[in-house]
Amino acid sequence: MEQYSRPRLRLFENRRRPRPPGLWLKPMNQIVTDSNMNDGHADKLAAAEALATQVLQVEPGNAEARHALGLIRMRQGRWPEAVALLQAARDSDPARSDYARNLVHALNGLAKTEADGGAFEAARLALQRVLSYLPGDADYLCRMSFVLTRMGRPHEGLAAAQLAARAAPEGAEPEDKAGLAYLGLGKTELAIKAFEKALERDPDYAAAHINLGNAFLQAGAADTAIAYYDQAILRHPGNAQAFSNLGLAYAAKFRFADAEGAFRRAIAADPDFPEAHFNLSRILLMQGNYKDGWAENEWRWKCPDFPSTWRQFPYPHWQGEALAGRTILVWSEQGIGDEIMFANPIPDLLEGGAKLVLECNERLAPVFQRSFPGAVVAPRLDPPDPRIAAAGIDFQAPLASLCTYYRTSKKSFANNTGKYLVPDPERGEELRRRYAALRPGLIVGICWRSGNPIVGHERSAPLPLWREILTRAGCNFISLQYGETAADIEAARIAYGADIYVDDDVDPLQNAEDWFAQVAAMDLVISVDNSTIQVSGSLGIPTFTLLSQAPEWRFGLDGEDHDWHPSIRVFRQTEAGRWDDVFEGLAKAFSAHLEGRAA
C-alpha cells in the first residue's frame, strides 16, 4: 500500500490510488477467485453470482452462499456489500478462519476505496474493525497511521506508527508513516530523519524515496527533492507517483517544459491518475495552451482533494451542443474569486441564445442577477433552490467547464472586454461621494495581503514596502483589504505617515454587494493576487497587480497583460521573496498614471 505525503509547493495534491488487495480464498470458491477470471471467465463469475443469489433467496442464512457472494462483491469492487455479506458469514460460523480472513480483506478494500475518495473517517472506521480482529498488526497500524494523518490528526497518526514500529522493529514502513505524521505536525527535520531511517532498512522502498523528496520540496529544497524522485524512478521506472511529484518539483524550479514531460510520463504509467492530469492542466494553461489545458482540467472532479463537490443534478452534461433556445444550468465551483473569474464566458453563452439558470455562491447571487438580467440566478443550497427543477433544464455544466468551449485559445479572449459584472450603481455612487469628500484627488484602493492558507505569505506585500506609493500627494488611499487590518495600517502611519482610509461599513467577507460597489468607486486598484483583483477586473476598473515569482496559472508565464481581465496590468517578481523591482516598476507606472490623469 503506497502512501505519500503532500508537497507544499504544489499545483495540486498528489496521491496514488492503491491497488485492490489480494485475497485468501478457499478451494471450493475457485470459480469466484480464478486468477484468469478477467480472461474469458466472466460468465463463470456471473453463474456463481446467480447461484449464490438463488441459494440466499431460498435460505437467507446460508453462510457458504453469503461468503461466496461476498467474494464476488469484492471482485466487483462493491466493498460495503462485500463487508456486510462476509461479516454475516463470519458471525454465523466464527470457527471458519477463511471467513475471518476474507472479511479482513474486504474491510481493507473498503478502507482503501474510502481513503482514495477522501472519506477518511469511513476509512478509519473500517481499519478500526480490522484491528479489532488483528490487534497489533504492523501493516494495518501503518495504514491507520496514514489515514489519521490525512484526517488532520497527526498526533494520533504518529502514535499508530510508533505502535507499528514496536510490532515490526526492523520494518521500513512504520518509519515512513512516522515521517508522514511528523510532516503533518510541521516537524520537517524529524520527518526527514524518519524517511531516511526507512530507506536505511529498505533502500528500494519507493514510497520513502518519494516522501523524502516531498519533505525537501516542502522545505523549499526542490533540487534535493528532484534527486530523491529520480532515485524512486531509477528503482521503479513505472512509478506514476514519482513522475508526478517530479513534475511538481520541476514546476517549483520554473522548469515548466520538464514539468510537463514528467506529468505526461506519469500519465503514460497510469492513464487513470487524476492528479497527474490535473497538474498537467495547470502547466498547459500557464503556457497558454488553453484547448489541451481545459481538456485535462476535467479530471479535477476525480481528484479526492479538489475543493468542490459535483452537484448531483439529473440533467445531461453539456458537451458543446448548440444552445439556442435551450436551457442550461451552470453551477458554481471552487472559491468566490474563481466564481467571479469563471463567469467571464457567460456573455458568450448568452449571445448564443441560451437560456441560463445560474446556481452560485449566495453572496454573489444579487450581483450575478443584475449582471445577467435574463437568467434565473439561484443561491447554491442543499436541497437546491426549487426554481431550478421548475426551469425545464436541457443541460448542466460546472462553471469552469464553460471555458472548454469558449476560452480555447488566446484569440478566444479577443472580444473579452473584461467588464461583465455590474455593481449596485446607487451604492457605488454613494461610496464614491463619501471617498471623494475625504480630500481632492485620485481614489486608489489598495490590498497588500493574500489570505491563501498555503502560499499567502509569498503573495503578500507588507505595507512597509508601499512607502513610495502611499506618500504620493493628490491621492485618497482606501483600504480594500479584507480581514484584520488595524495593526498594519497603524504601523504604516507611524513609520512614514501613511493615511489609509478604512470604511467600517463595508465588509467584503460578509456582503458582496458592498464589496463590488466599493471597488467600483475606485479610480485605480493596486493589489496583490487575491480575490479583490477578480472583482476589479470583472468591473473593468484599472488595476495594478503585484505578483510573486510563482503566480497562479491564470497569469501565464510572462508579460504584463491578463487574458481574463484586460483592465489589469501585472508587475512580476524576478526573484522569489524580493519585491524591490516590483515596487520600482509600480512606482513608475503609478507616476505615469497620475500624470495621465492630470493631463
Please give a handful of descriptors for the protein shown.
599 residues, alpha/beta, Serine Threonine Protein Phosphatase 5, Tetratricopeptide repeat, Rossmann fold, 3 domains, 4-stranded parallel sheet, 10 strands, globular
Structural classification = alpha/beta
What's the CATH H-level superfamily name of the largest domain?
Tetratricopeptide repeat domain
Largest sheet: 6 strands, parallel
Task: Indicate the mean pLDDT.
Answer: 91
Q: What Rg is obtained from the alpha carbons, in whole angstroms? A: 28 Å
Sheet-strand content, in percent, reads: 5-15%
Total number of beta strands: 10
Helix content: 40-55%
**Physical arrangement of strands within the biggest beta sheet:** 7-6-5-8-9-10
Shape call: globular
Low-confidence stretches: 6-39
Q: Which class of the largest domain in CATH terms? A: Mainly Alpha
Under CATH, the topology of the largest domain can be stated as Serine Threonine Protein Phosphatase 5, Tetratricopeptide repeat
Count up the domains. 3
How would you summarize what this structure contains?
Helices cover 51% and strands 8% of the residues. The protein has 599 residues and is α/β, with parallel strands linked by helices.
How is this structure best described in words?
By secondary structure, this protein is of the alpha/beta class. It folds into 3 domains: 27-265, Serine Threonine Protein Phosphatase 5, Tetratricopeptide repeat (Alpha Horseshoe); 327-413, Rossmann fold, CATH 3.40.50; 425-598, Rossmann fold (3-Layer(aba) Sandwich). It contains 28 helices and 10 strands. The strands form 2 sheets. A 6-stranded parallel beta sheet has the order 7-6-5-8-9-10, sandwiched between helices. Helix 27 links the parallel strand 8 (524-528) and strand 9 (543-547). Helix 7 (138-150) packs antiparallel against helix 8 (154-167). It starts with 29 loop residues before the first helix and ends with a helix. The model is unreliable at 6-39 (pLDDT under 50).
